[in-house]
Design brief:
3 helices, mainly alpha
Length: 98
């Protein structure tokens, strides 16, 4: 009987060791869970970026308005026959005339 109890205790200790320190231990599971959460957040950000880029690609494929808007905003281009006017803010003037 003492031998059986000794074997069971050794088996129990061996199983506990694997649970806490071996492959697939609880600490490893917690660490991998945190890493998974980090990767999910990165994936969410990349998916959002992809949706924005996809919308821009569709705009550029579907019409000239997107090309025109991009040229005006990013390159400062104007249409033929248009006049470009740039407003430069001046110094503020006091109402008393000084």
């Amino acid at each position: 009987m003492k031998i059986l109890i000794g074997i069971l205790i050794i088996l129990f200790i061996g199983l506990q060791y694997k649970l806490w320190f071996g492959d697939g231990s609880l600490s490893e599971v917690v660490q991998l869970s945190k890493e998974l959460d980090t990767q999910k957040e990165k994936l969410r950000l990349l998916e959002e970026r992809n949706r924005i880029l996809e919308a821009q690609v569709l705009d550029l494929q579907n019409g000239l308005d997107a090309y025109e808007e991009k040229a005006r905003n990013d390159l400062g281009m104007i249409k033929q026959g248009e006049t470009f006017i740039q407003l430069i803010p001046g110094e503020s003037v006091n109402s008393s005339g000084q």
